[in-house]
Structure formats: structure tokens, C-alpha cells
């Protein structure tokens, strides 16, 4: 008996739905490198090639799609049209949305002032590249057309000079590059951030770029820096120029240089007018930073700052207090704000769909090779057309021999399709020539018309010969490129907007320490807390707020320009400036110095030395009665070092640190009840910071220094009793009358 079949065993399985994915939900072990290679790398390459990095013609795909659409719309001539219309038409080539397209147009426009030579002539509010808050109007309000220089982008683009490809939906053709007649990649700034790489190309003066390219074509061994002086920014400014550093940027394609704002001083209004700023900042950022500096009391010379930018251009006005030197104030602002800023160069360009960081000469070399191919393609296209025309005219010349015969052949041919073959047979011409003859209007079948057309044969033959010579001669092609470059330089060249200033002339100014010198009072507590309070504010201050169990051990009246040296329990000194600390109030606990100055772990601040200049000396009094005297100059450094090790001797237990600006008396008291009064002139000075000093007050076993401080006149009734004749000494025992007079 056959086994019984299970229920539904013979029923065929249902077909899987369309959404079914084989292996979905299955966990598969895969190397992370393989995952990146298969999943992330294609995306990264798409960003690099199709979005972020410019190509040798100086454009990213988004730029190229917009400008080519405007070219197709005939916006090279005529009046402007609504930007929304242009944006909508561009979406046929660029599927990334109208907002992204319009932002691209804004940056390419002359109204935005982001480019030295804008490609879009604008009408309406297009914002400003140097302003964060000055937004551009919506595309339905603004208008645009191509600027005159844009004609250089499309020169002979219809003569197969560059390759065309399908757009994203294969309904149109678009160029892969523009056959631009000058190195636009160096003329207009371009910045892009891709996956794992970036590009930041600074702009150069058009005339200088053309002259440098011409010089390179004539001699490949030129020094680019001889003709290409320095970058030139549309916002102007002053470029701090160092020839060696600039040549290194030109050679490697990487590096940075500084650009600072330019200003004028209006004596009648007692104000500074800033009329150009670095390209890396905005007016709002500068104003916010200056306001912040004023609030922190790091700048006290300013009454007001405001943005007075109008149709005439950028302008930031700073109202000064009376008696302020505007040049000194600007030096301070250059150091503390983005009125002086660095521009980082990264000349990363796509060459044959591969990103490469190139030097300026290499960029010019690649552009010349690209332009050579464009000119060659154009000449070959014109040559082909000329040969085709010449071929037709040669066929026409045979008709001239017997026009009546041609008319008779056409008239006696019974079928239209036989006209061309009969003409081919009758005159010994090919099909193309016969087709051309057959299409001539009856009114043109006269001797005068044909002779007139045949006059062009000789000229065409000469043109064909010339074009063939050009294709066979690299030098002639280069001559064409040079001529075009010279034409562009003469037609569109402008004077430099960015002034080049030798960096050497700013050396002293850059090194000069300029800080606010307003009076302040500094407080330092035993537990390491610090306060800086403007001295005029102390009159209105109440009781000092301190941590429980803490007390103020140092109160120093000085200025905001003072330098501070905080000695630590770890035998180190941490250097800072009073100006680095914000002004505070008595009701505030203050800043904890070990945290503020990033002390090593378990280190505490034990003493604060306040110096205007590194004069005077430090005294380190040890428990065993030794005193080390170190000149303050030992703590001065040429560089801006924040930490010095071996600040004092670590062989003995430190009791007291005293900063002396000049010679003075020091009163020592021992735990054995003895006292000693010595003058600092008796202490030998050693430049080594960690020297152990000399024995001043001898101590027996179990005894140590109890107090050490500067002597205050009148504290002792008979101070001469405590002055030793020789060192070391044990000191004298205190008497009742001495104890009554002592203030400590």
C-alpha cells in the first residue's frame, strides 16, 4: 500500500512577489575593506568626478550645465530674462533641483562679487560673497544673461572641438568640457569638498595668467613667478607676499598665504573705514569678533562699529575714542580678528577623470595640451567642411562646360529619381556632386552664377592647404593659441584688485605685542584660584567670594598687558598673560589655574609672579634655610612658550617663593624661635633656574624655616640686631620688645 501523501504536498508553491529579494535579511560576514570598495568607493568617485572637483576648463558639471543652457537660450546677446526661466530650462541637464541650480547662478553672477570675471550678468539682488546675512532674492525676482566674457567659453563649440554626451535622460546632448580660450581654471576661484579630498583654487589676474601662458608656450623652462605675481581676489585686500613661499605654492599646488583688509582713516570723523576684507571671512564675522573683543575688554579704543555697505561697495566703519592711534589699533585687530586671515591653496583638478594636485606650471601645461586639441579639432572640422565644399564646386565646374547638356538631361529624364544618376553618367561626377547640381534653382543655371561660384575654388584650395599645414605643425597651432590669449588679455584684462605687499615690511608689526594696558587688580588664592577685576570696578565691589577654607594670598595692582608666571608644585612654571583672562567680579569664584593652564596631573599652583618686563629676580626659600636667587631673565623666552620645566630646585622642600623687582630686605623666622634679616644683595645670583642656592639660616635637626617675607620698615624695633655679619648664620632670639613691634 502506497504511503499516504501529506496535505497540500502536490500543490505547486506560489510565485514569489516582485518585491522578493534573494538573500534578504541574511547576515553575511564580509571584510570591511571589501564593503568600502563595493559600496562606498563608487559613491565617493561619483562625488569627485561628477560634482565637487573642477576640470581643466575651470568648471564643475553644475557650472557647465547652467552656462551651456544659457548659451542654448541665446542669452549671449539681448536683454536679461527671469532667473526662474533659466533655472527651469537648466533642469533638462541638471536633475539636482532648482535651489542648487540657482545657487550656482548666484555665485557665477557679477552681483555676488565672488569671481574676478563673472560669467553671468545679473539684474536684481544676488547677495554678496563677503556677507553672510545679505541674502539673494528669489529667482522669480531676479534676471540674468551671459556676460561678454562668456563668449570665450563657447568659441567654436559647434565645430566638434569638444566631446558631447547624452544628458541624464538621453534627450539632449551636453559638452563634457568647454573649449575655453584662456586658462579660466586659474582666473576664477573654485572650491569643492569631495569624499576624502578637497579643492581650493585661488584666482589670479587674467592678464597675468595669459602672459604667463604665452611665456610658457614660447619657453617651457620659465619661472612662473616672474610673470604670475600673486593671486588676485575680487574683494581686493592686501596680500602679504613672500617670494619663496609663493614659488613653493606654484611648484606643489599646496600652501597658504595671508591676506589682510585695507582701510582709510577719516580724521574729521575720527573713524576707520574698512573697504576690503580677506576672501575667507565676512563682514558679520568681523563685526561680531570686534564686539566680542570689546566686551572682553581686550579692545578699549573703540566707541562703535557698524556695517555701512551700500551700492558703492563694502564698508565697515569703526568709531574711535579720542587720542587713539588708528594704525596701532588696526595692528591689534589684525592679530585678534579675521581682518587678517590665511588662504589655504589646494590645486586639485580632474585630469582625464582622475583627481591630481598640480602646480601652476603643470596646470598651464595641461591646459595648453587641452586647448591644442580643441584648436586641432576646430581646424579639422573646418578642413572637412572646406573639402566638402571644394568637392561640390569641382563638380559644378564640369557643368560649366555644357550647361545646355545639363538642362537637357534633367528635361528628358522621365523619373525624378533618375536625374542624379543621369547627371553622374553625363558629366562623370559622383552622387554628392550630382545631388548638389540637381538642387540648383533654375534661375541659377546661368553662366554668371556658375562662374561666380567657381571663383571660390582657388581660395578654398588655398585655405585647405593652410589648414592641412596647421594640422601638421604644432608650432602653428601654438601660434593660434598665443594670438587668442593676447586677444583675451587685451579685451578683458583688468588691473590688479589685490595689492601685493612684501612680507618683510610687516615683520616688526607682526612681532610687536600689542595689548590693552588698562589698570587691573589681580587676586590669587592659596588653593589656586585667580581673578582679574578692572581697578575702577573695585570701588563698587563687595566682599570677595572664595571657596570654603580658601583665602587670598596675593593681591597685585598692574595692567592688562602684564605677563603672569604661575609656579607649580611640580617644579614647573606656566606662563600666561593678564589679557588672556576675562574680566570678572568680586562675586565670582574665579578661574582655577591648574585647569585653565592645563597643569600636569596632581600639580597645584603655589605662587603667581606678575611682570611687566623680565627684570628683577625670583627668591626660592627652602625649609632647610637655603635660598636660591634666579634672575627673571632666565624665564624669558624668544618664542611664545607656555610651559618651562625645572623652574626651581627639586632637591629640597620649598617653603616660600618671592618675586623681587629690586633689592630689598627679607625677614626669616625659624621654628626654633630665631629671626634673621638679610638684604638680597648678599645672595649670589645664578642663571640656572634649578640651582640650589646657598645656606642662609642654619637649622638643626627637626628645625625648619617657619616664615619668609619681605621686611616692612618699622616691623622691628632694632632691626640691626637680626642682621648677620656673615652667612650662614643661626639668627638671633626674639625679645619681648621685638615681638610687640612685629606685624606678622
Rounded to the nearest angstrom, the distance between the terminal CA atoms is 121 Å
Low-confidence stretches: 5-13, 507-513, 739-744
What is the CA-based Rg, rounded? 42 Å
CATH superfamily of the largest domain: DNA gyrase/topoisomerase IV, subunit A, C-terminal
- Count of structural domains: 5
CATH topology name of the largest domain? Neuraminidase
In round numbers, the mean pLDDT is 89
How would a crystallographer describe the biggest sheet? 4 strands, mixed
Report the CATH C-level class of the largest domain. Mainly Beta
Strand content: 15-25%
Helix content: 25-40%
| Overall shape | elongated
Order of the strands making up the biggest sheet: 14-9-8-17
How many β-strand stretches?
Answer: 33
Decide which structural class fits the backbone: alpha+beta
List the helices and strands and how they pair.
Layout: H1 32-52, H2 61-72, E1 81-82, H3 83-90, H4 98-108, E2 120-123, E3 143-146, E4 164-166, E5 173-175, H5 184-187, E6 190-193, E7 198-201, H6 206-218, E8 238-241, H7 243-252, E9 254-260, E10 262-266, E11 271-276, H8 283-295, E12 302-307, E13 316-320, H9 326-336, E14 340-346, E15 348-351, E16 354-357, H10 360-400, H11 403-412, H12 419-427, H13 431-438, H14 447-471, H15 474-492, E17 499-502, H16 507-511, E18 519-525, E19 529-534, E20 552-559, E21 563-568, E22 573-577, E23 591-592, H17 593-596, E24 605-611, E25 617-622, E26 626-631, E27 643-644, E28 654-660, E29 665-670, E30 674-679, E31 694-695, E32 705-710, E33 732-733, H18 736-741
Parallel strand pairs: 8-17
Antiparallel strand pairs: 1-3, 2-3, 4-5, 6-7, 8-9, 9-14, 10-11, 11-13, 12-13, 15-16, 18-19, 18-20, 19-23, 21-22, 21-24, 22-27, 25-26, 25-28, 26-31, 29-30, 29-32, 30-33
Helix pairs in contact: 2-3, 3-4, 6-15, 10-13, 10-14, 10-15, 11-12, 12-13
Amino acid at each position: 500500500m502506497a504511503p499516504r501523501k501529506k496535505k497540500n504536498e502536490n500543490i505547486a508553491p506560489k510565485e514569489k512577489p516582485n518585491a522578493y529579494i534573494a538573500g534578504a535579511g541574511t547576515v553575511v560576514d564580509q571584510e570591511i575593506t571589501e564593503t568600502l570598495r563595493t559600496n562606498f568607493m563608487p559613491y565617493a568617485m561619483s562625488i569627485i568626478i561628477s560634482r565637487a572637483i573642477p576640470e581643466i576648463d575651470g568648471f564643475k558639471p553644475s557650472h557647465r550645465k547652467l552656462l551651456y543652457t544659457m548659451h542654448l537660450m541665446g542669452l549671449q546677446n539681448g536683454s536679461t530674462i527671469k532667473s526662474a526661466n533659466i533655472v527651469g530650462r537648466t533642469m533638462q541637464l541638471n536633475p539636482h533641483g532648482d535651489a542648487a541650480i540657482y545657487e550656482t547662478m548666484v555665485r557665477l553672477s557679477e552681483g555676488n562679487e565672488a569671481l574676478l570675471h563673472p560669467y553671468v550678468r545679473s539684474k536684481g539682488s544676488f547677495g554678496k560673497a563677503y556677507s553672510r546675512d545679505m541674502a539673494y532674492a528669489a529667482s522669480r525676482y531676479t534676471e540674468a544673461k551671459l556676460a561678454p566674457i562668456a563668449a570665450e567659453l563657447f568659441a567654436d563649440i559647434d565645430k566638434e572641438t569638444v566631446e558631447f554626451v547624452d544628458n541624464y535622460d538621453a534627450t539632449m546632448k551636453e559638452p563634457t568640457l568647454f573649449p575655453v580660450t584662456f586658462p579660466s581654471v586659474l582666473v576664477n576661484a573654485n572650491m569643492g569638498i569631495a569624499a576624502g579630498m578637497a579643492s581650493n583654487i585661488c584666482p589670479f589676474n587674467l592678464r597675468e595668467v595669459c602672459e604667463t601662458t604665452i611665456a610658457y608656450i614660447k619657453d617651457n623652462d620659465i619661472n612662473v613667478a616672474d610673470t604670475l605675481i600673486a593671486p588676485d581676489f575680487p574683494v581686493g585686500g592686501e596680500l602679504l607676499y613672500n617670494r619663496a613661499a609663493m614659488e613653493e605654492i606654484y611648484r606643489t599646488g599646496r600652501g597658504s598665504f595671508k591676506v589682510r583688509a585695507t582701510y582709510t582713516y577719516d580724521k574729521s570723523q575720527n573713524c576707520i573705514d574698512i573697504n576690503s576684507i580677506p576672501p575667507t571671512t565676512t563682514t558679520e564675522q568681523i563685526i561680531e569678533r570686534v564686539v566680542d573683543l570689546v566686551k572682553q575688554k581686550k579692545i578699549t579704543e573703540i566707541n562703535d562699529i557698524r556695517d555701512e555697505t551700500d551700492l558703492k561697495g563694502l564698508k565697515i566703519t569703526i568709531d574711535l575714542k579720542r587720542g587713539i592711534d588708528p594704525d596701532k589699533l588696526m595692528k591689534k585687530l589684525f592679530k585678534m580678528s579675521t581682518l587678517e586671515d590665511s588662504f589655504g591653496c589646494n590645486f586639485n583638478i580632474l585630469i582625464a577623470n582622475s583627481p591630481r594636485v598640480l602646480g601652476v606650471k603643470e596646470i598651464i601645461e595641461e591646459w595648453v595640451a587641452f586647448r591644442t586639441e580643441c584648436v586641432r579639432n576646430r581646424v579639422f572640422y573646418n578642413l572637412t567642411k572646406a573639402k566638402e565644399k571644394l568637392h561640390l564646386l569641382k563638380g559644378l565646374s564640369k557643368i560649366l562646360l555644357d550647361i545646355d547638356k545639363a538642362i537637357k538631361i534633367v528635361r528628358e529624364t522621365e523619373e525624378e529619381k533618375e536625374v542624379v544618376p543621369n547627371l553622374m553618367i553625363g558629366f562623370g561626377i559622383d552622387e554628392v556632386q550630382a545631388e548638389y547640381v540637381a538642387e540648383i534653382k533654375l534661375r541659377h543655371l546661368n553662366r554668371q552664377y556658375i562662374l561666380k561660384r567657381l571663383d571660390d575654388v582657388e581660395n578654398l584650395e588655398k585655405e585647405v592647404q593652410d589648414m592641412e599645414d596647421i594640422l601638421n605643425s604644432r608650432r602653428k597651432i601654438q601660434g593660434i593659441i598665443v594670438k587668442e590669449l593676447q586677444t583675451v588679455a587685451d579685451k578683458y584684462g583688468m588691473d590688479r584688485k589685490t595689492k601685493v605687499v612684501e612680507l618683510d615690511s610687516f615683520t616688526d608689526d607682526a612681532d610687536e605685542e600689542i595689548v590693552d594696558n588698562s589698570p587691573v587688580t589681580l587676586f590669587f588664592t592659596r588653593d589656586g584660584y585667580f581673578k582679574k577685576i578692572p581697578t575702577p570696578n573695585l570701588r563698587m565691589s563687595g566682599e570677595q567670594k572664595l571657596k570654603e577654607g580658601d583665602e587670598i594670598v596675593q593681591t597685585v595692582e598692574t595692567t592688562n598687558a602684564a605677563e603672569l608666571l604661575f609656579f607649580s608644585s611640580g617644579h614647573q612654571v606656566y606662563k600666561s598673560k593678564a589679557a588672556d583672562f576675562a574680566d570678572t567680579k568680586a562675586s565670582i569664584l574665579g578661574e582655577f589655574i591648574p585647569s585653565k593652564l592645563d597643569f600636569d596631573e596632581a600639580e597645584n599652583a603655589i605662587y603667581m609672579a606678575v611682570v611687566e618686563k623680565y627684570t628683577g629676580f625670583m627668591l626660592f626659600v627652602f625649609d632647610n634655610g637655603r635660598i636660591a636667587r634666579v634672575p627673571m631673565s632666565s624665564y624669558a623666552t624668544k618664542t611664545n612658550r607656555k610651559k618651562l620645566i625645572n623652574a626651581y630646585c627639586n632637591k629640597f622642600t620649598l617653603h616660600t617663593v618671592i618675586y623681587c623687582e629690586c633689592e630689598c630686605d627679607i625677614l626669616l623666622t625659624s621654628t626654633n624661635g630665631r629671626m634673621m634679616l638679610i638684604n638680597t644683595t648678599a645672595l649670589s645670583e645664578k642663571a640656572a633656574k634649578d640651582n640650589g642656592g646657598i645656606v642662609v639660616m642654619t637649622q638643626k635637626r627637626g628645625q625648619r624655616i617657619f616664615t619668609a617675607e619681605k621686611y616692612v620698615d618699622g616691623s622691628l624695633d632694632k632691626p640691626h640686631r637680626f642682621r648677620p655679619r656673615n652667612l650662614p648664620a643661626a639668627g638671633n632670639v626674639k625679645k619681648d620688645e621685638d615681638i610687640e613691634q612685629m606685624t606678622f
